[in-house]
């Protein structure tokens, strides 16, 4: 038990009329939508890194947060950090949490020492999880912060770094498996390049593909039943990112025959950096059959970098969860808040309030999305727009034996001059606004 959150009571649902900033207005975990509770639909997770590791620094300023476990460079401080983390999980009532290896244990003087410390912390987590703590949504390895990764992880020109990564991922997968994790995530923060002047792009892609293949092979070897997820990440911090967006990741998976083995963890902030909307990336993942999980945050639209702010737009949340529901909902995945406080939000209560607001926004978005699907509010007009393709003649144009010249002859014989029809975008936007 930590004293950091000692004065903060567990958050409860008080309803839409509540003015209590430390209570849920929309997220009622036991409220049912269809045959599932909101807790089962949303599968909320709190991340370890931004909440318990980040010190409040940015490119132009240093530490602003003062947490009693900082700098967490000893196992005693790592356990104190874990005590605070599990207190926060309990206060929020979240069913899941997520972590990088680097988040939960101080780095040792050797690789073996780092692994030993990770396993000691896993022992500590096991006891807390058995005592009513949340489950592990996913584990992952930090292969981007240390200077050894400045030229990439699996794509590094140094084979010793590649081997170091293999050992790091193996250890993290073993711990994730032991803790009952439902997914394992690979976040390629440094998998890319700054300039082609010193980069063998083809070699690096082959290394990354072989590494991912070995991760999948190891998953089956140890009997890990969770999903392997890649998190698409454009531009930042590497100028040219190999896992730029969902479509890029899918092409990479197809090239190495992994499209049935690996799915994606899609983050809103990364979607925006890639020049997409969040719902576009989710729809693409759904369409390509690789939808897995989401990191829910937002970017400041006036900034050109990944600000990782907590979500606060009901309409954005509604469109995101619309795609999640259309994909059949989460299976092993969930809603992880890869979001952080602003540098001036210094208090323990700020950490709780930020998550309360974010969970409420997601709940509100989920309910709006569910009603839109239930009422056929968007799918009805969409079907009507493409109804012409339901005819036998139209389908014949897409058949395997159809030819370009044959279709051209069809158009010439019909002597039809097709006229455009309205896409009715504004009407559809108005429909969405009615639900949110």
UniProtKB/TrEMBL annotation:
Q: Which PANTHER family match?
A: PTHR48408, XYLOSE ISOMERASE
- SUPFAM superfamilies, per the entry: Xylose isomerase-like (SSF51658)
Q: What is its EC number?
A: 5.3.1.5
Question: Cofactor note from UniProt?
Answer: Binds 2 magnesium ions per subunit.
* Class of the enzyme per the UniProt entry, highest EC level: isomerase
Q: Which NCBIfam families match?
A: PRK05474.1 (NF003998), xylose_isom_A (TIGR02630)
Which cofactors is this protein said to need? Mg(2+)
Q: Which Gene3D superfamilies match?
A: Divalent-metal-dependent TIM barrel enzymes
Record carries keyword Cytoplasm = yes
Q: Which GO terms describe its molecular function?
A: magnesium ion binding; xylose isomerase activity
User: What family does this chain come from, according to its entry?
Assistant: Belongs to the xylose isomerase family.
Spell out the subcellular localization from the entry. Answer: Cytoplasm
Q: Which InterPro entries match?
A: Xyl_isomerase-like_sf, Xylose_isom_bac, Xylose_isomerase
- What Gene Ontology terms for biological process does this UniProt record contain? D-xylose metabolic process
This protein's UniProt keywords? Carbohydrate metabolism, Cytoplasm, Isomerase, Magnesium, Metal-binding, Xylose metabolism
Q: How does it assemble?
A: Homotetramer.
Recorded GO CC terms = cytoplasm
What name has this protein been given in UniProt?
Xylose isomerase
Q: Which domain of life is it from?
A: Bacteria
| Catalytic activities | alpha-D-xylose = alpha-D-xylulofuranose
Listed binding positions for Mg(2+) 2 are 267, 270, 306, 308
Q: State the active site.
A: 100, 103
Q: Where does Mg(2+) 1 bind?
A: 231, 267, 295, 338
Keyword RNA-binding among record annotations: no
Designated gene of the protein: xylA
């Amino acid at each position: 038990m930590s004293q950091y959150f000692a004065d903060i009571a567990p958050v409860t649902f008080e309803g839409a009329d509540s003015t209590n900033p430390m209570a849920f207005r929309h997220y009622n975990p036991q409220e049912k939508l269809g045959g599932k509770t909101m807790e089962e639909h949303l599968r909320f997770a709190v991340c370890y890194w931004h909440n318990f590791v980040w010190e409040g620094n940015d490119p132009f300023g240093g530490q602003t947060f003062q947490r009693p476990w900082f700098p967490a460079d000893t196992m005693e401080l790592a356990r104190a950090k874990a005590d605070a983390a599990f207190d926060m999980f309990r206060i929020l009532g979240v069913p899941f949490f997520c972590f990088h290896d680097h988040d939960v244990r101080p780095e040792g003087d050797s690789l073996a020492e780092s692994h030993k410390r990770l396993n000691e912390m896993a022992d500590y987590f096991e006891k807390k999880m058995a005592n009513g703590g949340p489950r592990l949504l996913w584990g992952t390895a930090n292969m981007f912060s240390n200077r050894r990764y400045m030229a990439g992880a699996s794509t590094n020109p140094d084979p010793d770094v590649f081997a170091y990564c293999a050992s790091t991922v193996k250890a993290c997968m073993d711990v994730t498996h032991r803790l009952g994790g439902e997914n394992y995530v690979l976040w390629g923060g440094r998998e890319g390049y700054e300039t082609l002047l010193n980069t063998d792009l083809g070699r690096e892609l082959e290394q990354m593909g072989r590494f991912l293949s070995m991760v999948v092979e190891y998953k089956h070897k140890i009997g890990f039943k969770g999903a392997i997820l890649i998190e698409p990440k454009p531009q930042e911090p590497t100028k040219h990112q190999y896992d730029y967006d969902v479509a890029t990741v899918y092409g990479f998976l197809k090239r190495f025959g992994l499209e049935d083995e690996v799915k994606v963890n899609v983050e809103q902030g990364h979607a925006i950096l890639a020049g997409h909307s969040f719902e576009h990336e989710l729809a693409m993942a759904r369409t390509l059959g690789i939808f897995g999980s989401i990191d829910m945050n937002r970017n400041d639209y006036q900034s050109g970098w990944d600000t990782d702010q907590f979500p606060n737009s009901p309409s954005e949340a509604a469109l995101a969860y619309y795609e999640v529901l259309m994909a059949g909902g989460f299976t092993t995945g969930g809603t992880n808040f890869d979001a952080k406080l602003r540098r001036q939000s210094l208090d323990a209560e700020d950490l709780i309030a930020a998550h309360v607001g974010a969970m409420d926004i997601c709940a509100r978005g989920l309910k709006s999305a569910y009603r839109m699907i239930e009422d056929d509010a968007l799918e009805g007009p969409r079907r009507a727009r493409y109804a012409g393709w339901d005819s036998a003649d139209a389908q014949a144009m897409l058949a395997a034996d159809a030819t370009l010249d044959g279709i051209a002859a069809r158009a010439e014989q019909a002597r039809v001059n097709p006229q455009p029809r309205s896409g009715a975008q504004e009407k559809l936007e108005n429909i969405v606004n009615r639900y949110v």
